[in-house]
Amino acid sequence: MSPIQVVAIKRSILNKLSAKSKWDDLDDDDDDDDNIRIQQVPRDMRYVECNLLRQNQNFVAIRDAGGAEVTNDMYVRDPETDIFWFVGKVARVSGVTLKQAIARQWAMVEEHAARLRPLEIYPKRGGLEIWSAPGDSELDVAYNKPSIQFIKMDQNVEGADKIKNLMLGFQGELYEPGEDGFRTRRTNDGMPKLPEVSAEAEKGEKRPPTDDEIEEIATLLKGKDLKTMFEEDE
Prior knowledge:
By secondary structure, this protein is an alpha+beta fold.
């Protein structure tokens, strides 16, 4: 990772950490609960700049070595809704299970989701669900591909607390100004709630995309090398 990339990530993290003061719609009476929650979180997974930067660097290093196969996309939802918000990606080395990687970084992932969605997610901290999808599957998720099923993660997994932080990583989603955030509607078993999207209407459950879905797909494709993406699918 270049010094410029580190500075950019650091600046984004600082912006996220300072964003809470701008949330005028939130109740200030949650401070005591926040203090109790922080005390229960391992020091190396608390939502502070040094931890976020370290886990991001770990993610990049592990992904560079193992590719998308050692990563998973992460979604968080309020269990009272069917909306799953994309919040970032995790990576892990061999010997560490996906469930262990999530459980070890649970507090960081959950808090990041709360900072991303202060109105929808923040008030439900402590009762949120974290779900995983295959790494780099955002486009298939946007198209409601039935081959992509989300898997619900557990907060407490045997052996997770013994894993060193350098054996796993987390790269949180960051919004551009004005970006609405990627989300998907799913059933309680992690399957798409809406029919699969197809460029042309066909028989069966496939359908043409709505304007909102086209906008979300365009956002996902922004900055990606389309030629490389299609070559990988061949």
